[in-house]
Amino acid sequence: MLLARIVGTVVATRKDPRLVSHKLLLARPVDPQGTLEGSHLVAIDTVDAGVGETVLIVSGSSARMATGLKDTPVDAAVVGIIDTVDLAE
Amino acid sequence: MILGRVVGEVVSTKKRPQFEGAALLIVQPITPDGSARGASLLAIDSVGAGRGEIVLTVLEGRAAGEALGRKGAPVDAAIIGIVDQIETE
Amino acid sequence: MQIARVIGTVVATRKADALANTTLLLVQPLTPHGQPAGRAIVAVDTVGAGVGEEVFFVRGKEASFPFHPAEPPVDAGIVGIVDQRTVEAP
Fold this sequence. Notes:
The complex is a heterotrimer of chains A (89), B (89) and C (90).
Chain A: E1 2-10, E2 24-29, E3 41-45, E4 54-59, E5 76-81, E6 84-87
Parallel strand pairs in A: 3-5
Antiparallel strand pairs in A: 1-2, 1-4, 2-3, 4-5
Chain B: E1 2-11, E2 23-29, E3 41-45, E4 54-58, H1 61-68, E5 78-82
Parallel strand pairs in B: 3-5
Antiparallel strand pairs in B: 1-2, 1-4, 2-3, 4-5
Chain C: E1 2-11, E2 24-29, E3 41-45, E4 54-59, E5 76-81, E6 84-87
Parallel strand pairs in C: 3-5
Antiparallel strand pairs in C: 1-2, 1-4, 2-3, 4-5
């Protein structure tokens, strides 16, 4: 899974019917210290996350195991909102 | 499947029960001419491969579980053959 | 699978119901010689690993298999702790 920050939302009117009523979030991965890095990705929200929050994103076929996403054509889902990250040292 | 060379092995006592008795080998993916390419990975050995050998490795969970002969094993890579010869144009 | 070092823990109160009671660890993938390789990711623990330990983890839907018949939405899972690794010289 990835740590990422929600940096925006995505609205799509014309989309696969199975995506109707799902919130699309624009996320960008962060390193363990919270610094933004790498490419943006769009993920389906399943935990009511909002812009500015640090979240847990699951990718690939596992994303469809998130609540309400069975059989939906998605490859990334927000499945948690991060409270803290405790690092060694 | 990919071609790889066995470059090492890993010993683990505390692991998922499905791994009991299976060797864990470090595989370096190679091009057909034998040059290393990309990052190495860890694979379950199902054919008795050894250090230095060129092997055929499957990188898909269901197939890897079949190779291991244990259903529901949390594996994503398995060595399924030892390569005798590679012919290219 | 890949070798990694557990470098931290991740706490999330609001999360998918299927993730309740799971332990989320931050892991840094390693080369066979123990050098960090690529970006750290979050993996669910299934073997009682702790911070500082060297482990191996599986990627993909297979990471959920230890929780069968539950299917938590996870794509990386720690499935073993490395006691020893033997690698030829680079």
